[in-house]
Design brief:
By secondary structure, the protein is mostly helical. It has one domain. Helices cover 78% and strands 0% of the residues. Helix 1 packs across helix 3 and helix 2 runs antiparallel to helix 3. The termini are far apart.
Amino acid sequence: MSIEAIKAYSQAQRLHKSAIPPLSTDVTESISFKDMVGSFKDTVSQVKKAEEISMEGVKGTADPLSVVTALNKAYMNLQTLTTLTTKSIQALQDIKSTPL
């Protein structure tokens, strides 16, 4: 890995950390099913965008910072989507196991 790529990666991490809003600790906050499906669509489009930018980086037409930033955003969205999916499945299993 080149020094330029390492510098770009560390700069992207600093930028990304400053752009992430703090997590909400409000338990009463909820997300609707429609919003969850919308986040699935957003994640898919973010991953596609990251793939396009990374291909531009391979060709040499995109700077390393934009490649790393796009990949980090896609990764964060994918982690969020995975967490939402896992929590939804757990909630469904809890509902199914609740005696009537």
